[in-house]
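INTERNAL TRANSFER SHEET
From: sequence group
To: structure group
Subject: Nucleoside triphosphate pyrophosphatase

Please process the attached sequence and return the structure record in the designated field. Keep the field labels unchanged so the import script can parse them.
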Amino acid sequence: MTTVVLGSASPSRLQILRSGGIEPFVLVSTADENELKHQLPAGPTLVEQLAAAKAADVAHQLCISHPTLAADALVIGCDSMLLTATGELVGKPLTVERTIAHWQQVRGTSAELLTGHTVIRLTDGAEATASAVTRTVVHFSTPTDDDIRRYAESGEPLYCAGAFTLEALGGWFIDAIEGDPSNVIGLSLPTLRRLAAQVGLNATSLWNTVTSPSAEEK
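Return from structure group:
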């Protein structure tokens, strides 16, 4: 059976895969994101290039440290950023002050959450790669300055792309979205299904936590 390898430390991405019937092998990318951002051209395609770099790094690690798994594996690399109405790409704010400043700019506006996805299928030394960027429109509400400060000081948005979550405290301040909600959380299952097909895998063949009912239960 093909082993799904998640090249991310993100708890949200891990939970998406688990909810989708997959318990992945987690191997975190060691690629230097900050250095890559300086080397790569800015723009919406940046998330795809970062996802590709992460996936390639993890595939290399897997081949060296876990050659048995690398004989039949699907490596997943992702990167998310928020494209604001003013054209700014926002990653993780990292500090309370940056989070507050960002929210004061985006409240009452709409923006696009971009997630770059790259999959690399490894089969006995051979590689097949597919990539895509998925966009989901996010409509922000108008939280007060006090709301924004309390949210920032909760610590939740500091390490989230675009300084918000959809599925937790940040959900209070999102009026609506247009598109795939799993993409906003960090990994689009529909996109993953399409990319897996491009490298010769059916999504349901990757399920490893789903059991069929026995004949007696049917």
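Handover comment: The beta strands are 3-6, 25-26, 72-83, 89-90, 110-123, 126-140, 174-178. The chain is about 35% helix and 25% strand.
Transfer complete.
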